[in-house]
Design goal:
This protein is α+β, with helices and mostly antiparallel strands. It is built from 15 helices and 12 strands.
């Protein structure tokens, strides 16, 4: 941590009526602070999503979100202080493990805690949307277009049910206001569940958020979405919601497969270098991602057809230009 960051941390502690015991960097423009009175805090600068539009003296999206969501007791960190002129906020540090670290051996009830917490968060966003709407991010790329990108990975019999399911899952009626930076690393479990990073929010599908929060790609792919999780979700939200979840679950791993395939086909490309740096060797990871696609979900004909609808690994090597799984 730089001397400038150290001085900043000491000043924050003094402004809050305390004395700094320790501070360390935990991310880009994010500091962890522990005060001698025992308080644990996180100080954050203006998030990159707001840097282009923020001006001194004005609020920014994450500050507005925490302020509004705290008023309705949403499962997000408590806002402690902010400086609009210099562009930083202080929130309470949330102790516990991120879901990303727990996915390999998740505690019992983790999926239930995640989903119920997310529903509470979306309800809080809806209750405060009059305040938050002007700070919302514009819609991103269409999920149907993303689904179309996956079709070359599928055999001929799987392509039609895939696009049918995509059309149903992305219906406008399924969209709800809520966070957009949804990753398992942004969920902290410690009895209750807390959602971090409210820097970007807008309309999206609840089940897309569930699929993104409940899984992790990378070099150690893992998921909470097993048959038991699907039964729980189906009982809780109904058949249509469970089908949407299955679509976004498959799309999550389909996009991962696309990255691996592209990297394996062009091993010297910039994209391949990024995959190797972030995830590992594409050829070795490919079978694991295929297994994530093919795991059991719902006892529903289209889902079963899609689960078995990837081209075989042997055929994939020929079709996608991959010479061996280990390359």
């Amino acid at each position: 941590m730089s001397g400038e960051d150290q001085r900043f941390a000491e000043n924050v502690a003094a402004l809050l009526g305390g004395e700094l015991e320790t501070a360390r960097s935990i991310g880009e423009a994010v500091l962890y602070l522990k005060l001698k009175d025992g308080r644990e805090l996180v100080a954050k600068g203006v998030a990159r999503q707001s840097l282009a539009s923020w001006r001194p003296g004005r609020a920014w999206a994450e500050l507005v979100a925490l302020d509004a969501l705290n008023q309705v007791d949403a499962p997000v960190p408590k806002l402690v202080a902010a400086d609009l002129h210099h562009g930083w906020l202080v929130e309470e540090f949330v102790a516990g493990e991120t879901l990303a670290r727990l996915l390999a051996h998740p505690p019992r009830g983790a999926f239930g805690s995640l989903t119920r917490g997310l529903f509470r968060l979306e309800e809080a966003f809806a209750a405060q949307w009059d305040i938050l709407e002007r700070w919302a991010a514009p819609p991103g790329e269409s999920d149907r277009k993303l689904a179309e990108l996956v079709t070359p990975l599928l055999d001929d019999k799987a392509r039609q049910p895939w696009m049918e399911l995509a059309a149903e899952a992305t219906s406008a009626s399924a969209f709800r206001p809520g966070p957009l930076d949804v990753r398992s690393a942004n969920v902290v479990l410690a009895g209750d569940v807390t959602f971090l990073d409210m820097a970007s929010y807008g309309y999206d599908v609840t089940e897309k958020r569930v699929a993104a929060y409940a899984q992790v790609a990378g070099g150690a792919p893992a998921s909470l979405l097993d048959r038991e999780g699907y039964r729980f979700y189906q009982d809780l939200r109904g058949d249509e919601a469970a089908l949407r979840l299955a679509f976004y679950d498959l799309l999550f791993w389909g996009i991962g497969l696309l990255r691996l395939v592209a990297a394996a086909k062009a091993p010297k490309s910039r994209a391949a270098m990024a995959v190797r740096e972030q995830w590992g060797e594409p050829g070795r990871l490919l079978p694991r991602y295929l297994a994530m696609w093919e795991r059991e979900r719902l006892a529903e004909p289209r889902i079963e057809r899609l689960r078995q609808g990837l081209v075989s690994l042997k055929e994939a090597h020929a079709r996608w230009g991959i010479t061996s799984p280990g390359e």
